Protein: PgmB protein
Amino acid sequence: MEGVLFDLDGIITDTAKFHFKAWKQLAQDELNITLPASFESQLKGISRMESMKLILKFANLEDNFSEKEVFQLANKKNELYLREINKLTQADILPGIENLLDALAANRILLSIASASKNAPLILEKLGLLNRFDAIANPENVANGKPAPDIFIEAAHQIGLSPEKCVGIEDAPAGVIAIKKAKAVAVGVGDDAELNEADVVVNKTSNLSYLLLVDTYDKKYL
Ligand code: G16
Ligand code: MG
Structure:
């Protein structure tokens, strides 16, 4: 194992609740609908525009807005979301993540972010983690979102590695599929049954460790 590719939302910090809060408000204010709670997990790892389209489809309003209007709605959601993100501090880093980053750096493992979020640099800055990563893959540079492997391949290339040399960490089923398609080793965080495509699953971030990642990688290749 020479590199680790991190998902952001659900692994480094829990932004899903802020995404959902912003989508819910947008849906209420602009579409006059109430989004069901199930959308919080449904939108995990899905890009901003894809999420917007899923919500319009749910509201049966996909033909009511021009491409430009859809874009403007998604921008409004982002403004609502940024209000929440600006309040993030180091205290919002998920349990065990700082220790994991320390252990990986001590072992000279390269670290890269593979997030669908265009706000990833801002979020990492707010958490005080920006300088702990060697690269952040830019989702604007990849053609297809998760479950396509593109963002994980890009994250590996940004640290000069092929994905086969890397372990990817994800909390969303679409993300785990993306890691496997990229041919990296997949560590899932969350529900075992939901993330059954992963090479190993832990139920919470505090159960992640350098040894778990190395062991999972070595089992695959040694
Ligand atoms: C995250 C979230 C998604 C969000 C996406 C894009 O993905 O899980 O809900 O829609 O980023 O975010 P933004 O609107 O900030 O560009 P990930 O890949 O970090 O789990
Ligand atoms: Mg995630």
